Amino acid sequence: DGGITQSPKYLFRKEGQNVTLSCEQNLNHDAMYWYRQDPGQGLRLIYYSQIVNDFQKGDIAEGYSVSREKKESFPLTVTSAQKNPTAFYLCASSRRGSQNTGELFFGEGSRLTVL
Amino acid sequence: SQQGEEDPQALSIQEGENATMNCSYKTSINNLQWYRQNSGRGLVHLILIRSNEREKHSGRLRVTLDTSKKSSSLLITASRAADTASYFCATGGTSYGKLTFGQGTILTVHP
Prior knowledge:
The structure holds two protein chains of two kinds. By secondary structure, chain A is an all-beta fold. Chain A has no helices and eleven strands. In chain A, the strands form two sheets. In chain A, strands 2, 4, 5, 6, 9, 10 and 11 form a seven-stranded mixed β-sheet that branches. Chain A has a four-stranded antiparallel β-sheet with strand order 1-3-8-7, with no helix packed on it. Chain A starts with a strand and ends with a strand. In chain B, strands 2, 4, 5, 9, 10 and 11 form a six-stranded mixed β-sheet that branches. Chain B has a five-stranded antiparallel β-sheet with strand order 1-3-8-7-6, with no helix packed on it. The chains are: A mainly beta, B mainly beta. Chains A and B meet through β4, β5, β9 and β10 of A and β4, β5, β9 and β10 of B.
């Protein structure tokens, strides 16, 4: 079945450590996104990528980094510079261009807790 | 920045009743989408309505869009306990996929 796989589902980190969240999709989608969700709130866009080897900052990119070396993969690194990293992180993908219906397909999320 | 604001923040109803959630936004949009999120899970796309559409149906879902008032509503008819979830509206500009989400409505449907 096609879909988006995020790992790990739960992650604990000590302050000062970088962590990388994995996102893999087999939907053959060009565009991929990372959102952050805090309790009781909506989603805020961290980074997005419309094509391999290209990505743009979203609304809250500070303290995060991404790479897009393969179409299928869009890992997110939460660096020690992110002041409040405890959150639920959601990866999504979509078609691009004329085939884009506007719909986002989401993974099941990764919950990061800083101890 | 959060573009959509949803109302109510929480809604509690009995099975069989209808549930209505509202979404307001601030700037011009290309389309408006509704998503559902079960607790601790990812979001699932429910329905998309384009800026030149006024109403759309999908099964027990009915979405309306009033661009003059910059608002949308999601109606779920004959609610079931399995409809218990958070519902989010999301607005899209000229760049498909780069959506801005509201804070969501928590719907609880009691059996």
